[in-house]
Amino acid sequence: MIQLLFTPTLAIFLILNMLLALSIIFLERKDPSATWAWLMVALFLPFLGFVLYLWIGAETKKRNAFIQKSRMDLDCFNAYAETAFYADNIRDTLDKYSDSELIFSDSAWSNFNGLAFLNFAAGLGFLCHNNEVDIFHDGNSKFERMFADIELAEEFIHLEYYIMRDDELGRRLVALLTRKASEGVEVRFLIDCMGKPFKYKTMFAELIKASGEVCVFLPRYIVRLNYRNHRKICVIDGKIGYIGGVNIGREYLGNTTRYGNWRDAHIRIYGDCAKELNLRFIMDWNYAWDNGKHISLDSKYFPKIADSDGVRMQIISSGPDTRWPVIRDSYLKMITAAKRSVYIQTPYFVPDDSIFEALKIAALSGVDVKIMIPAYPDHLFVFPAALSYLDVLVSAGVSAYKYHAGFVHSKVMLIDGLVSSVGTANIDIRSFKLNFEINAFIYDEAKTSELEQQFLRDIDECVLMDKAFFENRGRWSKVKEAVSRLLSPLL
């Protein structure tokens, strides 16, 4: 029977499939770990492995599609820099950067000059000083405040989200936006193709009738799982901005039996960093909307905000449309700059080699490294892969925790009680290389302390994964971890 099945024709097809897969993978992939992971998939899943690679792994379309976006973004940024909207801030940052002048002259902060320079040089992020920041640790408080701000909008409302559910929360938001559009407020909603509601045209019909505009990000890549717009942005009148991990759906309110309580991190900004968020929205909107309805760099979208001595922040974007993986690089810079502590909350912990080694070295150097992940993961391979990394890190002195009071979705990194990052990027390769992400980097002791206190409260809802935990796990768990670790470059 086996001899009958293994015909010369089948053998030829298998050989051709493998040769084709090898040629494409080796020609396209620059990361050796990802190359070997895809080769393993192709070896164990003939034909199907090759199809999967074309579906989610091939990079040719990325290079062709996002070179154009990178150029458009840079043109938009340069045009923005030449306006009067930000002249003083731009001039001050450029002068300090070109003269190698310290951005933070105070000794407590001098350790983070390199981080601020990196975020400007690689991420085009201006350091803004006049921000007021409110922190939300769940979706209910975030949406209560955001809806109140939308009610008061006078000029425009810009929203950019990865997931938008057709549920009570989503419909409430659309109804509010529709009313504001009917009052003459400009309303624009940019939603990722994979995260949009199934009947999104029906859901947004009344908003569009009221002159609101809705655009889908990368609709022509509906068959591709990669390159998702993971950014969550809301900008109101150019003065108020929201950024963080909370999407639009009832699960983000903790109203589902699958996840229960939902722990997240989202911030509200009043100040110049709201304009930074709006610039990113305009870049993404103008690329996604290809029928000419582009947003111009009009002064009404970048209103003058009084200068003040507030929270110092930078807004940084990264993704397949940026030259450098700047959020990953900034995470790495934060870890290597830490002298006292590194606290991380992330739902997906699949670090690349550089982040993994930096965390290990920090712990071995006496830095207090704490990492918190969900106890009940929502992806098949991510949790076992995370355990495979945490096993080694725990042996190096890292404290690893499983959060059991629901689902922890926060994407937070806290360094020395001084600097923090809140945004959309997880500690995983997908966030570092494949998704469109955006983070706020906060240089403020009070705000970082507020996030740190919440982190320490969350530890009370966790189980410590110590050396005994990893030594006592079963053989089957170790097998799943080994397989998931091999697949980690694809996760």
Quick overview of this protein structure:
The protein has 491 residues and is an alpha/beta fold. It is 45% helix and 19% strand.
Q: Can you offer a commentary on this structure?
A:
The protein has helices at 2-5, 8-28, 32-44, 48-57, 60-81, 87-98, 113-121, 139-151, 168-182, 200-203, 205-209, 272-288, 326-337, 353-364, 382-395, 429-434, 445-459, 467-472, 475-487, and strands spanning 128-136, 156-161, 186-192, 213-217, 233-236, 240-244, 262-263, 266-270, 311-318, 341-345, 349-350, 368-374, 399-403, 407-408, 412-415, 419-423, 427-428, 437-443, 462-464. By secondary structure, the chain is an alpha/beta fold. Among the domains are: 10-58; 63-318, 2-Layer Sandwich (Endonuclease, Chain A). The strands form 3 sheets. A 15-stranded mixed beta sheet has the order 4-3-2-5-6-8-1-9-18-16-15-10-12-13-19, sandwiched between helices. A two-stranded parallel sheet has the order 7-14. Helix 15 (382-395) links the parallel strand 12 and strand 13 (399-403). Helix 7 runs antiparallel to helix 13 (326-337) and helix 13 (326-337) packs parallel to helix 14 (353-364).
CATH architectural arrangement of the domain at 63-318? 2-Layer Sandwich
Average pLDDT score: 86
User: Beta fraction of the residues?
Assistant: 15-25%
What proportion of the residues is helical, as a percent range? 40-55%
Q: End-to-end span in angstroms?
A: 38 Å
Our Rg estimate from Cα atoms comes to 23 Å
Strand order of the largest sheet: 4-3-2-5-6-8-1-9-18-16-15-10-12-13-19
